[in-house]
Structures are given as C-alpha cells and as structure tokens.
Amino acid sequence: MNPPLGSAVAAVCAGFGRDVDENLAQIADLIEQARAEGVSLLALPEACLGGYLSVLGAGRDGSHDEQPEDLPPVMDIDGPELRRVAALAGDMTVVVGLCESDGSDRYNTAAIVSGDGVLGLHRKVHQPLGESMFYAAGSEFGCVDTPAGRVGALICYDKAFPEAARSLAVDGAEVIACISAWPASRTATGDSIAEDRWTKRFNLFDAARALENQVVWLAANQHGTFGKLRFVANAKVVGPGGDVLATTGIHPGMAVAEIDVPSALETARRAMFHLRDRRPDAYGAVTAATLQEPAHA
C-alpha cells in the first residue's frame, strides 16, 4: 500500500528525449520518489513525454531558422501515455508536458492529471523564437480544482508575461506550475550555467511571478542537453513571498518543499493582498492598446 500523501509540493529537473517508454519509466521512478516524500503535487518538465525541439532560439549568427532533426511524437489526450501517467499518479496530482494535437494542429501542452484522469490542460500561449513554425499557439489561461488544491499551469516562455500568471491568480490559483525546457543563451553564453544570463532570467521570473501574485510557484525544467540546446536546470519551489523554498540549482533532481498552501497564502496576503488591491480600471491600456514600436533616429 502506498503511504498517505503529505503537504509537500515538488518540481523536477531531469532530461527527457524521444524514447517515450524510457520517459514513462523515468516518470514512474520520479512519482515513486515524490510519493515517498509525501508530495501531493508534482511538476514534471515541459515535453517530458517525447522530448522538446532540438533547435530553438537565435544562433550565433543571429538567425533562428534552423530546422530540428525530428519533431516530438504527437499524443492524444485520451491516449495510452497520459493514461499511464494518471495510473502512476494515483492520489497525487502531476503536471506533465507533451506534444498534443486536436486533429489538425500540434500544441505544446501541459496536462494536469491524477488517478481520476486528465483534470485540465494548458496549451502554451507565448512562443519564443522559431517555435511557431512547429506548434500552434494556445489562447487562454485557466485553473482546475485538484486533490492538491486549485492549480494553474504555464509553459516556459509564458512566465515572461505577467498577464499570464495574473490570469491564473485571478482565477483562484493557489499553486501555479510552470513547466519548462528553458535553455541557456546561444549568443552571449556565460562561463557556467549558473552564470548564464538566461539562467538568471529564469530564476528572476520565478521569484517575481510568485511574489506579485502571492501564490506558491513550481518551476520544473529539463536538464542536460538536447540537440543544440543546453538547459539551465534550476527546478524550484517558490513561496508566496517570492522566497525560494527548495531548488535543484544547476543539478538534476527534485526540489521538494513541505508547505501548507492555504496557510501560506493566508499569511502572505494578510497585510497587503495584491489581488485585492489591484486597480483594473487603470490598466485597460495594457490589453487594449496596440504596441507602439520605438522611434529610430
């Protein structure tokens, strides 16, 4: 019999490639490890069920039109892969990344699953350099009620946009799981992953999104290399005050934090509650205005 789940949450940093059976075996091991640590909500990396794109982003010549060697396998939401993850999850809630299709378009998707099946989906809305050549973009954000609380999901570049996380927060998110395949810079690389400028951005976004929305934030990420990409790792759990509660740093592993989510949110929001103190009437231009290009001399 499995031990009862506790109040821990966790985010994974691990490498996943094209071998789906191997990925499922690794996911099974990670879920078993998480269950042993009392984890009720586990975030796995973007594209962990079939691997990411092997090329993305600006190359050293400034272009971003390189073609990947192959594309991730397409999976159905009611297909055997997600059924297998759901069976493994049992009473745990797991956020897992895959390439999904609606029959005509491919989507970079995060599925929120438990033993009851697929509870919710998020199709990546914001697409970085070149990704739109291979995936259609999602168009909405929303939360789902899970055994681990009310959860919203984002994917990678989505977290660079405050509106994305805020949309989930106003929809009642207690926890936001942002799953990523976030690479290091390919143009102005640092001496180490820890010092890479894209690593610093990854970590900065995580802290800022958690703090401004006063939510618990799970950041999962790929590890190692895939094609020409080198991932920045740094899976973490961030508290509603923007404090990092657990992190893998530049290493593979699982960041686990014991936290009573409702109590943590109540404490963080007791004095200054950012969502309550918003002034939406003053922000209309944010979504209504057309972006003005900077003037060039």
From TrEMBL:
GO terms for molecular function: hydrolase activity. Residues 1-261 form the CN hydrolase domain. Keywords: Hydrolase. It comes from the Bacteria. InterPro entries: Aliph_Amidase/BUP, C-N_Hydrolase, C-N_Hydrolase_sf. This is Carbon-nitrogen hydrolase family protein. It comes from Nocardioides aromaticivorans.
